[in-house]
Amino acid sequence: MKPGSRRNANNGFTLLECIVAMAVLSFGILSLVSVFTQGLSNSSQTQIQFIAQQKAREALETIFTARDTKILTFNQIKNVSHGGVFNDGAQSLCDPGPDGLYGTSDDNCSKPDTIIVGPGPDKIFGTSDDQVIPLNPWMTRTITITPDPNIGNLNHITVTITWVYNGRTSTISVSSYISNYS
Length: 182
Fold this sequence. Notes:
The protein is α+β, with helices and mostly antiparallel strands and 182 residues long. The chain has one domain (15-179). The chain has one helix at 15-68; strands at 90-92, 94-95, 108-112, 114-118, 131-134, 139-147, 154-165, 168-179. It has a 4-stranded antiparallel beta sheet with strand order 1-6-7-8, with helices on one face.
């Protein structure tokens, strides 16, 4: 031992130092949990947003297909309030009905639109026992068709999907122009 030095028999951390260290570590861990939870929530919201975008595009594509296959004339590609076949306002996501068009009066809401999330007990996709999630009533679709004010024979179509997830209402819109000519 060196002269003049004392060996302290109480080497170590005090109770106060341990409590402060535990508080700092707890704060750090809780911050990471918060970030992880927010990430999971955003991941779920992104999946729902993707589904909504695809459902909007699907409805838009049926309108183009109806024009190209002559199921509808160009003059019928309007909202009901303007003499067309597409319902005004928000509509539940339902089976498109016999005409194959979403948002028309013959939509079959006894058969709501669904997404397949996994195979059923037979482990084969595309069979009647698949696991599905119905999109009705928490998602709605609005198809708005307006004539272009500057160009005749040209309509602007906007398909908007609105949904509520975790108490937050969100929307996504897909727009396109459709002409009389295919």
